[in-house]
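Bug #2210: token dump truncated for Phage tail tape measure protein?
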Amino acid sequence: MSNNVKLQVLLRAVDQASRPFKSIRTASKSLSGDIRETQKSLRELNGHASRIEGFRKTSAQLAVTGHALEKARQEAEALATQFK
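Reproduced locally. Full output below:
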């Protein structure tokens, strides 16, 4: 075999051997991008969850304060009635 033919055979073999690696690299880049997008979405969801939790705590505290205010009003009315 001539050197030229040997070189062509060798290059063809290298090309065939490296083809799967190229597709793996392409898939890896795509997966990396998908992972980044997923991480971004998770950060956003965690932020929303934190705000929801804060809202729930605030709502619970507001309910307690509302009950205390109503009790104070009733006591004030009772005292006002006693002074009349």
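Output looks complete on our side. The mean pLDDT is 93. Marking as cannot-reproduce; reopen if the truncation happens again.
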